[in-house]
Amino acid sequence: MDEGPRHRLDELIERSDPDFRTVMSCVFGIEDHETRTYFALLDRPGSTVEELSAALERDRSTVNRSLSTLTERGLVRRDRRLLDGGGYVYQYTAIALPEAKAMLHDALETWTESVHGVINGFDGDRP
Protein backbone atom coordinates (compact mmCIF):
# COMPACT_ATOMS: atom_id res chain seq x y z
CA MET A 1 0.00 0.00 0.00
CA ASP A 2 1.41 3.38 -1.07
CA GLU A 3 1.46 5.89 1.78
CA GLY A 4 2.19 8.86 -0.48
CA PRO A 5 5.40 10.81 -0.73
CA ARG A 6 8.09 10.23 1.83
CA HIS A 7 9.20 13.73 2.65
CA ARG A 8 12.88 13.98 3.39
CA LEU A 9 12.70 17.12 5.51
CA ASP A 10 15.47 15.81 7.75
CA GLU A 11 17.84 16.06 4.78
CA LEU A 12 16.66 19.61 4.15
CA ILE A 13 17.20 20.64 7.77
CA GLU A 14 20.77 19.32 7.68
CA ARG A 15 21.72 21.67 4.82
CA SER A 16 22.52 25.25 5.69
CA ASP A 17 22.02 26.61 2.17
CA PRO A 18 19.97 24.23 -0.01
CA ASP A 19 19.24 25.09 -3.63
CA PHE A 20 15.72 25.06 -5.07
CA ARG A 21 16.06 21.61 -6.65
CA THR A 22 17.16 20.13 -3.32
CA VAL A 23 14.19 21.73 -1.57
CA MET A 24 11.86 20.29 -4.22
CA SER A 25 13.36 16.81 -3.95
CA CYS A 26 13.20 16.74 -0.16
CA VAL A 27 9.75 18.25 0.30
CA PHE A 28 8.04 16.24 -2.45
CA GLY A 29 9.98 13.07 -1.65
CA ILE A 30 11.28 12.72 -5.19
CA GLU A 31 14.69 11.80 -6.56
CA ASP A 32 17.06 14.15 -8.34
CA HIS A 33 16.33 12.55 -11.73
CA GLU A 34 12.62 13.18 -11.18
CA THR A 35 13.32 16.82 -10.40
CA ARG A 36 15.35 17.04 -13.64
CA THR A 37 12.41 15.52 -15.51
CA TYR A 38 10.07 18.16 -14.05
CA PHE A 39 12.36 20.98 -15.21
CA ALA A 40 12.78 19.41 -18.64
CA LEU A 41 8.99 19.36 -18.97
CA LEU A 42 8.76 23.04 -18.02
CA ASP A 43 10.76 23.75 -21.18
CA ARG A 44 8.92 21.12 -23.27
CA PRO A 45 5.20 21.10 -22.43
CA GLY A 46 3.21 18.36 -24.10
CA SER A 47 6.19 16.01 -24.47
CA THR A 48 5.87 12.28 -24.87
CA VAL A 49 7.98 9.73 -23.00
CA GLU A 50 10.04 9.20 -26.14
CA GLU A 51 10.70 12.93 -26.61
CA LEU A 52 11.70 13.34 -22.97
CA SER A 53 13.92 10.26 -23.11
CA ALA A 54 15.86 11.84 -25.96
CA ALA A 55 16.06 15.25 -24.29
CA LEU A 56 17.22 13.81 -20.96
CA GLU A 57 19.40 11.11 -22.52
CA ARG A 58 17.73 8.50 -20.30
CA ASP A 59 16.01 5.25 -21.19
CA ARG A 60 12.25 5.25 -21.68
CA SER A 61 11.49 3.06 -18.65
CA THR A 62 13.36 5.42 -16.30
CA VAL A 63 11.59 8.48 -17.73
CA ASN A 64 8.24 6.69 -17.57
CA ARG A 65 8.76 5.88 -13.86
CA SER A 66 9.78 9.49 -13.20
CA LEU A 67 6.65 10.75 -14.93
CA SER A 68 4.47 8.37 -12.93
CA THR A 69 5.94 9.65 -9.66
CA LEU A 70 5.64 13.29 -10.73
CA THR A 71 2.03 12.72 -11.77
CA GLU A 72 1.25 11.10 -8.40
CA ARG A 73 2.76 14.12 -6.63
CA GLY A 74 0.64 16.53 -8.69
CA LEU A 75 3.65 18.11 -10.41
CA VAL A 76 2.87 16.79 -13.89
CA ARG A 77 -0.35 16.41 -15.85
CA ARG A 78 -0.91 13.63 -18.39
CA ASP A 79 -3.16 14.04 -21.42
CA ARG A 80 -4.09 11.46 -24.03
CA ARG A 81 -3.83 12.56 -27.66
CA LEU A 82 -5.41 10.52 -30.43
CA LEU A 83 -3.16 9.80 -33.38
CA ASP A 84 -4.36 10.31 -36.96
CA GLY A 85 -3.56 6.73 -37.93
CA GLY A 86 -5.34 5.32 -34.89
CA GLY A 87 -4.20 4.73 -31.37
CA TYR A 88 -3.05 7.34 -28.91
CA VAL A 89 -0.04 8.75 -27.14
CA TYR A 90 0.30 10.33 -23.72
CA GLN A 91 1.65 13.84 -23.49
CA TYR A 92 3.00 15.30 -20.26
CA THR A 93 3.08 18.87 -19.03
CA ALA A 94 4.66 20.17 -15.83
CA ILE A 95 2.53 22.39 -13.63
CA ALA A 96 3.64 26.01 -13.73
CA LEU A 97 6.53 26.92 -11.44
CA PRO A 98 4.41 29.34 -9.33
CA GLU A 99 1.97 26.48 -8.65
CA ALA A 100 4.84 24.16 -7.65
CA LYS A 101 6.18 26.88 -5.34
CA ALA A 102 2.75 27.23 -3.72
CA MET A 103 2.66 23.47 -3.16
CA LEU A 104 6.10 23.63 -1.54
CA HIS A 105 5.00 26.45 0.76
CA ASP A 106 1.84 24.54 1.73
CA ALA A 107 3.76 21.34 2.48
CA LEU A 108 6.31 23.18 4.62
CA GLU A 109 3.62 25.13 6.47
CA THR A 110 1.74 21.91 7.24
CA TRP A 111 4.93 20.31 8.55
CA THR A 112 5.80 23.41 10.61
CA GLU A 113 2.32 23.46 12.15
CA SER A 114 2.62 19.79 13.12
CA VAL A 115 6.01 20.42 14.77
CA HIS A 116 4.59 23.42 16.64
CA GLY A 117 1.75 21.16 17.79
CA VAL A 118 4.23 18.64 19.19
CA ILE A 119 6.12 21.40 20.98
CA ASN A 120 2.98 23.02 22.37
CA GLY A 121 1.53 19.66 23.41
CA PHE A 122 4.58 18.64 25.42
CA ASP A 123 3.72 18.84 29.10
CA GLY A 124 7.11 18.03 30.54
CA ASP A 125 6.58 14.30 31.02
CA ARG A 126 9.58 12.29 29.96
CA PRO A 127 9.32 8.80 28.48
UniProtKB/TrEMBL annotation:
Domain of life, per UniProt, equals Archaea
Cite the Transcription regulator TrmB N-terminal domain residue spans from the record: 25-87
InterPro entries attached to this UniProt entry = Tscrpt_reg_TrmB_N, WH-like_DNA-bd_sf, WH_DNA-bd_sf
One Pfam family assigned to this protein is TrmB
UniProt protein name: Helix-turn-helix domain-containing protein
Lineage of the source organism? Archaea, Methanobacteriati, Methanobacteriota, Stenosarchaea group, Halobacteria
